[in-house]
């Protein structure tokens, strides 16, 4: 599932082609369009130029001299650059043709999609971007939450950008159990959680994904008889608010 680091990678792809004229817009599957028709999307963008894009949480915002193009990648989406002669993939849904190639929005499951709107109307309910959250912000955001820590971290109205892998990795790095009550963390635990958040995001953005390294929880969580990369204890796993949650009961006691 694309999370903040993946979308930051997509932002970099688009940023490399800002200022180039949009020759055409091809909607290959209207099932990814949200609140806009294929005709309106093409008319609004054709002949315009993408300006410097920005990201908020898992959303990519691409102004183009008028309404803002907003992309959400759901569980299987991506934005990639291709030569015009390169064969299209069967899951390519929207293609923006530029003079030297194409930007392609690809998504197998089509759970989210492409918007053309005022950014505030789409992003107004989101919490702050995870990269911008200070230690004080984190304490404030979690102190009023009822329920467990993991759902609070992945709730986009609380903090925008964290998904399943990032939340588990951050909790594991901080040695905080994801099943703990979000409002019950003490000062030291909040500090550890914030430091882990910053470190995991920094390294993941560099890799443009949550990297499945052997020294990371992400690299161990899906292995048979998965063991903690830090202490070697068997990992625990259960569904929390519909999401598979993984932790080390030795390093992250309840």
TrEMBL record:
InterPro entries: FPG_cat, FPG_N, H2TH_FPG, Ribosomal_uS13-like_H2TH, Znf_DNA_glyclase/AP_lyase, Znf_FPG/IleRS. Belongs to the FPG family. It catalyses: Hydrolysis of DNA containing ring-opened 7-methylguanine residues, releasing 2,6-diamino-4-hydroxy-5-(N-methyl)formamidopyrimidine. This is DNA-formamidopyrimidine glycosylase family protein. Residues 2-112 form the Formamidopyrimidine-DNA glycosylase catalytic domain. Keywords: DNA damage, DNA repair, DNA-binding, Glycosidase, Hydrolase, Lyase, Metal-binding, Multifunctional enzyme, Zinc, Zinc-finger. The lineage of its organism: Bacteria, Bacillati, Actinomycetota, Actinomycetes, Streptosporangiales. Residues 219-253 form the FPG-type domain. Its cofactor is Zn(2+).
